[in-house]
Amino acid sequence: MKPTTLEFKPQERNIFFHLLTGCNLTCKHCYINPSQHGTETVSRATMETWLKLFYKPQKATNVIFLGGEPTMHKDLAHGVKFAKELGYTTVTIDTNGYVFHDILDRITPQDAVISFSLDGPDATINDPIRGAGVFATCTKNIKRAIGLGFDVSLIYTVSSMNLSHLQRMPELLADLGVKRFFIQVIGIRGKSATTTKNLQLTPKEWLTIIPKVAANAARKGIHVIYPKVFLDENEDFACAGEHAENFFIFPNGRVYQCPLCEDFPLHSYTIKDNRLIENTGLNEAQLFTLKIHEGCVMNKLLQPGNLEYSRDGKVRHRISCCLLKQEMRP
After folding, report:
1. How far is CA 56 from the centre of its chain?
2. How many domains in the chain?
3. Which residues touch 329 (CB under 8 Å, ≥6 apart)?
4. CATH number of the domain where residue 223 is located
5. Residues with Cβ < 8 Å from 125, sequence gap 6 or more?
6. Which domain holds residue 135?
7. Which residues contact 122 (CB under 8 A, 6 or more apart)?
8. pLDDT tens across 5-58, in order?
9. What is the three-class DSSP state of 213?
10. What predicted TM-score, i.e. pTM, was given to this entire model?
11. Mean local confidence (pLDDT), 119-136
């Protein structure tokens, strides 16, 4: 079974809306950086205004509500329904599984997709990464959400802490009834950028282990999506900043187009007085058009340790855009 690369869709917009940066957990690999993203929580009125600001009726526009933990926002249910009424194609809530404010009872399966995060197939693996008791709480609420009829997916962030247990996840997902599985590469952002332990996978680990696990999950009837990460030798590089519309919004008004930049003041837009202002000076937008043999210029600039070179100076593994995905369907 071979994966299919999901090409960027020029007529689609994806809005990653961080409603707050606060969270009830302290995950070891959290990418939120308060010094860059702030500590604010958007108000109900701001939520409505920004949803209107980014909605484009002529394009398929999707919104993903994030945090911190978005279900900690008391007006999340209102935001979900407001987005649907505006016409957003798909509304998704990314949650750590605690589903605060009775969110599952305040929205319907027609309103939103619920995406849960787990980083291990049992509590002994997951909880040292995400917190004591998280596995039990998250799996309980996954079952509840599925029982209520919600479209449920699960995100697993792969790192050196849990790679050896990834192969056990398809069986867990099948038992839970989850039909969509996102395998996510760990980003060197936030806490991961400051730890002394190397959390990243080697190219060999990613290329040999991830496709095998994805194929096993697909055989169990699970739709799997994961980052491409590495380009084939003769494969063209494409940057989402040039070929897609993705906006990562933070409560302090910063708007990024590339997740790799989120630890730095390189955001291409700022929301000021509820207007989207294009930033001048050096920012991510000026870098998207740069072409280098290594592939992703942001990776070369911000995470050069990801690149390996042979003695003749040739890069061993070219890096794809971090937003380029592959999938395996049942």
Report:
1. 22
2. 1
3. 4, 218, 223, 224
4. 3.20.20.70
5. 119, 162, 165
6. 4-328
7. 135, 168
8. 999 999 999 999 999 999 999 999 999 999 999 999 999 999 999 999 999 999
9. helix
10. 0.96
11. 98
